[in-house]
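Lab notebook page, bench 4
Experiment: in silico fold of construct C2
Operator: M.H.
Input chain length: 205 residues
Purpose: comparison with the prior construct
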Amino acid sequence: MHEIIILGCGGHASSCIDVIEAEGKFKIKGLVDQKNQKKSEFMNYPIIGTDQELSEIKKKCDYAFIAIGQIKNSTIREEKFLELLSLGFKIPFIISPKAYVSTRSNIQDGTIIMHNAIVNANVRIGRNCIINSRSLIEHDVIVEDNCHISTGAILNGEVKVRQNTFIGSGSILKEKVSVGKNSVVGAGCTVLKDLKDNSFYKNEK
Protein backbone atom coordinates (compact mmCIF):
# COMPACT_ATOMS: atom_id res chain seq x y z
CA MET A 1 0.00 0.00 0.00
CA HIS A 2 1.38 3.41 -1.00
CA GLU A 3 1.84 6.13 1.59
CA ILE A 4 0.22 9.50 0.97
CA ILE A 5 0.46 12.94 2.57
CA ILE A 6 -2.54 15.21 3.06
CA LEU A 7 -2.45 18.99 2.62
CA GLY A 8 -4.71 20.78 5.06
CA CYS A 9 -5.90 20.35 8.64
CA GLY A 10 -9.38 21.86 8.58
CA GLY A 11 -12.93 20.56 8.45
CA HIS A 12 -12.72 19.39 4.85
CA ALA A 13 -9.53 17.51 5.68
CA SER A 14 -11.44 15.54 8.33
CA SER A 15 -13.93 14.38 5.71
CA CYS A 16 -11.20 13.58 3.18
CA ILE A 17 -9.29 11.49 5.72
CA ASP A 18 -12.44 9.51 6.44
CA VAL A 19 -12.94 8.78 2.73
CA ILE A 20 -9.28 7.85 2.18
CA GLU A 21 -9.39 5.46 5.13
CA ALA A 22 -12.62 3.91 3.85
CA GLU A 23 -11.28 3.47 0.32
CA GLY A 24 -8.26 1.63 1.73
CA LYS A 25 -5.87 2.23 -1.18
CA PHE A 26 -3.45 4.53 0.64
CA LYS A 27 -1.83 4.69 4.04
CA ILE A 28 -1.79 8.25 5.39
CA LYS A 29 1.79 9.12 6.34
CA GLY A 30 0.92 12.48 7.85
CA LEU A 31 -0.42 15.95 7.20
CA VAL A 32 1.11 19.15 5.90
CA ASP A 33 -0.25 22.51 6.99
CA GLN A 34 0.57 26.17 6.75
CA LYS A 35 3.45 27.75 8.58
CA ASN A 36 2.95 28.57 12.28
CA GLN A 37 0.82 25.49 12.84
CA LYS A 38 0.83 24.89 16.60
CA LYS A 39 -0.75 21.43 16.57
CA SER A 40 1.44 18.33 16.36
CA GLU A 41 -1.29 15.99 15.11
CA PHE A 42 -4.73 15.98 13.50
CA MET A 43 -7.27 13.15 13.39
CA ASN A 44 -4.63 10.94 15.06
CA TYR A 45 -2.12 11.55 12.27
CA PRO A 46 1.13 13.49 12.77
CA ILE A 47 1.64 16.89 11.19
CA ILE A 48 4.93 16.20 9.45
CA GLY A 49 5.73 19.64 8.07
CA THR A 50 4.59 22.87 6.51
CA ASP A 51 3.90 23.96 2.96
CA GLN A 52 7.44 25.36 2.81
CA GLU A 53 8.89 21.87 3.39
CA LEU A 54 7.11 20.04 0.58
CA SER A 55 10.26 19.54 -1.50
CA GLU A 56 11.91 17.74 1.42
CA ILE A 57 8.78 15.73 2.17
CA LYS A 58 8.70 14.59 -1.46
CA LYS A 59 11.94 12.68 -0.88
CA LYS A 60 10.08 10.43 1.57
CA CYS A 61 6.64 10.16 -0.03
CA ASP A 62 5.52 10.13 -3.68
CA TYR A 63 1.78 10.62 -3.26
CA ALA A 64 -0.11 13.68 -2.04
CA PHE A 65 -3.70 14.85 -1.85
CA ILE A 66 -5.20 18.31 -1.35
CA ALA A 67 -7.75 18.40 1.49
CA ILE A 68 -8.25 22.17 1.58
CA GLY A 69 -11.86 23.29 1.22
CA GLN A 70 -13.26 25.54 -1.47
CA ILE A 71 -16.26 27.84 -1.36
CA LYS A 72 -15.97 31.28 -2.92
CA ASN A 73 -12.52 30.89 -4.40
CA SER A 74 -10.54 27.99 -5.86
CA THR A 75 -7.20 29.82 -5.97
CA ILE A 76 -5.50 28.08 -3.03
CA ARG A 77 -6.45 24.62 -4.26
CA GLU A 78 -5.29 25.48 -7.79
CA GLU A 79 -1.95 26.82 -6.57
CA LYS A 80 -1.30 23.80 -4.35
CA PHE A 81 -2.24 21.37 -7.10
CA LEU A 82 0.22 22.94 -9.53
CA GLU A 83 2.90 23.14 -6.85
CA LEU A 84 2.56 19.45 -6.05
CA LEU A 85 2.81 18.55 -9.73
CA SER A 86 5.88 20.73 -10.17
CA LEU A 87 7.56 18.91 -7.27
CA GLY A 88 6.83 15.55 -8.86
CA PHE A 89 4.09 14.32 -6.53
CA LYS A 90 1.51 11.87 -7.82
CA ILE A 91 -2.01 13.13 -7.03
CA PRO A 92 -4.58 10.31 -7.27
CA PHE A 93 -8.34 10.53 -7.47
CA ILE A 94 -10.16 9.19 -4.41
CA ILE A 95 -13.56 7.47 -4.47
CA SER A 96 -15.54 6.55 -1.38
CA PRO A 97 -16.70 2.93 -1.35
CA LYS A 98 -20.05 4.36 -0.25
CA ALA A 99 -20.38 6.34 -3.50
CA TYR A 100 -21.73 5.06 -6.82
CA VAL A 101 -19.51 5.93 -9.79
CA SER A 102 -20.41 4.55 -13.20
CA THR A 103 -17.70 2.61 -14.98
CA ARG A 104 -18.61 4.77 -17.99
CA SER A 105 -17.57 7.95 -16.21
CA ASN A 106 -14.17 9.65 -16.32
CA ILE A 107 -12.66 10.98 -13.08
CA GLN A 108 -9.34 12.83 -13.26
CA ASP A 109 -6.47 13.18 -10.81
CA GLY A 110 -6.83 15.09 -7.57
CA THR A 111 -10.62 14.72 -7.45
CA ILE A 112 -12.48 13.21 -4.50
CA ILE A 113 -15.90 11.56 -4.70
CA MET A 114 -17.30 11.60 -1.19
CA HIS A 115 -19.71 9.38 0.73
CA ASN A 116 -23.08 8.62 -0.91
CA ALA A 117 -22.41 10.72 -4.01
CA ILE A 118 -23.77 9.36 -7.30
CA VAL A 119 -21.90 9.82 -10.58
CA ASN A 120 -23.83 8.38 -13.50
CA ALA A 121 -22.92 7.28 -17.03
CA ASN A 122 -20.81 9.36 -19.43
CA VAL A 123 -19.90 11.95 -16.80
CA ARG A 124 -16.55 13.74 -17.08
CA ILE A 125 -15.06 15.29 -13.96
CA GLY A 126 -11.81 17.22 -14.25
CA ARG A 127 -8.78 17.54 -12.02
CA ASN A 128 -8.74 18.75 -8.43
CA CYS A 129 -12.52 18.69 -7.87
CA ILE A 130 -14.66 17.99 -4.81
CA ILE A 131 -17.82 15.99 -5.42
CA ASN A 132 -19.27 16.22 -1.96
CA SER A 133 -21.50 13.93 0.08
CA ARG A 134 -24.89 12.99 -1.39
CA SER A 135 -24.43 15.07 -4.54
CA LEU A 136 -26.01 13.68 -7.73
CA ILE A 137 -24.14 14.06 -11.01
CA GLU A 138 -26.45 12.82 -13.75
CA HIS A 139 -25.66 11.37 -17.18
CA ASP A 140 -23.45 13.28 -19.62
CA VAL A 141 -22.55 16.04 -17.15
CA ILE A 142 -19.20 17.80 -17.54
CA VAL A 143 -17.49 19.28 -14.47
CA GLU A 144 -14.24 21.03 -15.34
CA ASP A 145 -11.09 21.44 -13.21
CA ASN A 146 -11.04 22.94 -9.71
CA CYS A 147 -14.79 22.78 -9.04
CA HIS A 148 -16.63 22.00 -5.82
CA ILE A 149 -20.07 20.40 -6.12
CA SER A 150 -21.29 20.73 -2.58
CA THR A 151 -23.41 18.48 -0.37
CA GLY A 152 -26.73 17.36 -1.81
CA ALA A 153 -26.42 19.34 -5.04
CA ILE A 154 -28.16 17.92 -8.13
CA LEU A 155 -26.69 18.36 -11.60
CA ASN A 156 -29.19 17.05 -14.11
CA GLY A 157 -28.37 15.51 -17.48
CA GLU A 158 -25.91 17.30 -19.81
CA VAL A 159 -25.17 20.13 -17.37
CA LYS A 160 -21.79 21.80 -17.86
CA VAL A 161 -19.92 23.37 -14.94
CA ARG A 162 -16.88 25.30 -16.13
CA GLN A 163 -13.60 25.50 -14.26
CA ASN A 164 -13.05 27.04 -10.80
CA THR A 165 -16.76 27.05 -9.93
CA PHE A 166 -18.61 26.35 -6.67
CA ILE A 167 -22.12 24.85 -6.61
CA GLY A 168 -23.71 25.25 -3.17
CA SER A 169 -25.42 22.67 -0.99
CA GLY A 170 -28.86 21.57 -2.13
CA SER A 171 -28.76 23.46 -5.41
CA ILE A 172 -30.53 22.04 -8.46
CA LEU A 173 -29.27 22.67 -12.00
CA LYS A 174 -31.78 22.06 -14.79
CA GLU A 175 -30.76 19.70 -17.59
CA LYS A 176 -28.41 21.18 -20.24
CA VAL A 177 -27.69 24.32 -18.20
CA SER A 178 -24.14 25.69 -18.44
CA VAL A 179 -22.45 27.53 -15.56
CA GLY A 180 -19.52 29.73 -16.58
CA LYS A 181 -16.05 29.55 -15.09
CA ASN A 182 -15.11 31.24 -11.78
CA SER A 183 -18.75 31.27 -10.68
CA VAL A 184 -20.55 30.73 -7.39
CA VAL A 185 -24.05 29.27 -7.07
CA GLY A 186 -25.37 29.74 -3.55
CA ALA A 187 -26.92 27.06 -1.37
CA GLY A 188 -30.43 25.93 -2.23
CA CYS A 189 -30.61 27.65 -5.61
CA THR A 190 -32.54 26.40 -8.63
CA VAL A 191 -30.69 27.28 -11.84
CA LEU A 192 -32.93 27.17 -14.92
CA LYS A 193 -30.80 29.05 -17.46
CA ASP A 194 -27.16 29.44 -18.41
CA LEU A 195 -24.89 31.56 -16.22
CA LYS A 196 -22.03 33.60 -17.63
CA ASP A 197 -18.42 33.49 -16.44
CA ASN A 198 -17.79 35.06 -13.02
CA SER A 199 -21.45 34.82 -12.00
CA PHE A 200 -22.61 34.99 -8.39
CA TYR A 201 -26.06 33.45 -8.29
CA LYS A 202 -28.22 33.25 -5.18
CA ASN A 203 -31.91 33.04 -4.32
CA GLU A 204 -33.75 36.33 -4.09
CA LYS A 205 -35.03 37.20 -0.62
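Observations: The first helix runs from residue 11 to 23. The first strand starts at residue 2 and ends at 7.
Next step: discuss at group meeting.
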